[in-house]
Amino acid sequence: MSHLSAELLPVRHTFFTLALLLAVASGAPAQQAKPGPKVPDTVVFEPGVEYANPDGQHLKLDLARPKSGAGPFPAVLCIHGGGFRAGSREGYDGLCIRLAERGYVAATASYRLAPKYQFPAAVHDVKAAVRWLRAHAAEYHIDPERIGVTGGSAGGHLAQFLAVTGDVRQFEGESGTPGVSSRVACVVNVYGPSDFTQSYGKSVDAAEVLPLWLGGNLEQARGRHILASPLYWITPEAAPTLCIHGTADKYVAHEQAVWLVDRLRAAGVEADLLTLPGAGHGFRGEEATKADQALFDFFDKHLKAPKPQAETPKAP
Predict the structure, then answer these.
(1) If we measure between CA atoms, which residue out of 58, 68, 131 comes closest to residue 89?
(2) 3-state DSSP call for residue 61?
(3) Cis amide bond preceding 115, omega within 30
(4) Residue 203, CA distances (Å) to 82, 206, 234, 301 in order
(5) CA 250: distance to chain centroid?
(6) Of 234, 235, 258, 232, which is closest to residue 245 (Cα–Cα)?
(7) At what angle do helices 121-135 and 154-164 cross, to 10 degrees?
(8) Peptide bond between residue 72 and the one before it cis (omega within 30 degrees of 0)
């Protein structure tokens, strides 16, 4: 503890005691600090690492990594959902820790939310998070060529957008180590929308959520709905993709994943769809177990498989 911190400690203690006494006097329960995730001895967990500061927002990520081993380790960025207007990175702390136990460096990042920040601000932010991981590869023993991404719902959309717009200049933004590549090696998209022009009438909250993020409904902002849809950015350069989606999803229709996988395959991109019959928007029990195992298997295949060796030229 620094000398300054030691001097401030009695003052902090006095304010805390006063607040506690006032809470008791008013009959209100004293608030307790929210407990952090359980971290095993084999994992180093670093919460609240700032990765970018657009518009003074001080965006942060939580990072988990193996405690032992020199690496370089593959990395996975996890992107939270919440309809582009809510949610928090802490929801993925548990998955990051589980990935670290499996030999990954895993991070979960905050990003700017609607309605104050509309598309493409969140895209700029998650791309900045990928660039940060790549720029700090040596410090965290990351293999910069093996960075994958996953997310659920709105986070699934942003993850997929990363996978189809690698190094597309108009979506890079200016914050967080500009000039470093934001390309990802693969993506696991968990019930993320692929075509916003087809969301209305098929989602219980699209009419409320999408205008806040896209600056209007489909009639008012059709161009932005198309621009923000991963389906329309697919090229043969898109990253290998696994979609996981339930057939009873009332927020993002299962057909959104079907369209995406079909279009990726037509472009020659490796793409698979794990359909969970009867599953809704959020998995439980056996559904969650299947989804988690598919995610781990996919990342192991694409981020841990040995790199192909260059052929040695034959002597003439």
Answers:
(1) 58
(2) strand
(3) yes
(4) 14, 5, 23, 33
(5) 22
(6) 258
(7) 60
(8) yes
Distance separating the N- and C-terminal Cα atoms of the chain: 69
Kindly list the strands in the beta sheet with 271-276, ordered across the sheet, starting from the edge strand earlier in the chain. 43-52, 59-66, 105-109, 73-79, 142-152, 186-190, 241-246, 271-276
| Residues 147-192 pLDDT 10s | 999 999 999 999 999 999 998 999 999 888 888 999 999 999 999 9
Domains and CATH numbers, the chain: 40-304 (3.40.50.1820)
- Extended strands (E) in the chain: 43-52, 59-66, 73-79, 105-109, 142-152, 186-190, 241-246, 271-276
Q: How many residues does the chain have?
A: 316
pLDDT tens for 96-111 read 999 999 999 999 999 9
User: pLDDT tier at 241 (50, 70, 90 boundaries)?
Assistant: very high
0.90 cut: is pTM over it? no
DSSP codes, 191-203: S--S-GGGTTTTS
Look-up of token digits 């037509």 = 266
DSSP state of 97: H
Helix (H) or strand (E) holding 241, with range, is strand 241-246
DSSP-based three-state secondary structure for 123:
helix
